[in-house]
Amino acid sequence: MLPAASKKRVLTEFFPSHSRKKARYTPPASSPVVSGDHLSSSHPTYPFPIPHLPTHIAEKLLESPLAEGDVVTDQPDLDLLYFQPFVPKTLENDFFEFLRSQLFFYRVQYKIKRGSIETQINTPRYTTVFGLDETSKFGPDGSIVESATSRPVAPSKYPTCAPRPIPQCLDELRRITELFTESTYNFCLVNYYANGADSISYHSDDERFLGPLPAIASFSLGAKRDFLMKHKPVPPKDGDAAPAEIKDAKPLKLPLASGDMVLMRGKTQANWLHSIPKRKGGESDKGRINITFRKVMVKGGTENYYQYNVGSGGVWKWDDKKKEMRPWQLKREDQ
User: Fold this and answer.
1) 154: which DSSP letter?
2) What distance in Å separates the CA atoms of residue 128 and residue 266, rounded to the nearest whole number?
3) Residues 240-252 pLDDT 10s
4) Beta bridge partners of 229
5) N or C: lower Cβ tally within 10 Å for the chain?
6) Nearest to residue 254, comparing CAs of 221, 229, 220?
7) What confidence category does residue 311 fall into, taking pLDDT thresholds of 50, 70 and 90?
8) SS3 of 262, please?
9) At what angle do helices 168-181 and 92-102 cross, to 10 degrees?
10) Which residues contact 148 (CB under 8 A, 6 or more apart)?
11) What percent of the chain has a predicted confidence (pLDDT) above 90?
């Protein structure tokens, strides 16, 4: 609990914990869980195949979530569903280690221009992304086709990126998440925070390509990190010199532990900002993976997410011997 002088509050102040269990997820017969130690997801846009979930992880994941999420709507424009945890505690570490070691990541650099000034941005975390907007889909052979007609998409539709399907190891989590959040998702963004120096500044996922009331499911695996939220200032009225603060809206601090999930929905993105600040010591240097599922409506969103989560840089992969992300290079026997 923070000192009384602090304005930030943790969620235990707002609601009691729940112990009610939800119905177990059962994959439909038309789309059974496919797992195994020798199967993998491949696509021409992947730098290397991504293994399927090992059987013990895939089976344990079907028990998620163990209890209902807590609804948080006690502040203006705030609508959260908070699971503590969503991923079972007996699974979260194995799931974290598997994803960190098997996914490919990028350390994206990009430039932004404000007026005549151009600034290079070095993304302070590792990122990767999978998915395709609602206007297109992946065919059985992995090619991109129009959603409405299933006809091949012209190469000119996505001139700045090469969309790729969500691999099985993340898609199984997506299916379960859809059931328990009553939302659908076509994009998966993954961030890896290597230590406390990796962060993301205050922002909101309020882009028009997500629609007016987007639902974003955000998972945390690995090190516990603070997730801060604050209400956006109200635009100034005529004659006011500066934006006004919302008096009834208090900043929040969610100490996200491994396996936790926060669903941000309704008016939350339009009115609240969130961040993962830098931290020193503690668990932060053990590494954290953040997985977010969201639904992109138009092709502009596809191009945006690949630009800022893949970019034009090289591929990084976890080196278990050195215990760090290292630049990945294609081995001769794989060429």
Assistant:
1) P
2) 26
3) 555 556 777 899 9
4) 252, 274
5) C
6) 229
7) confident
8) strand
9) 130
10) 135
11) 73
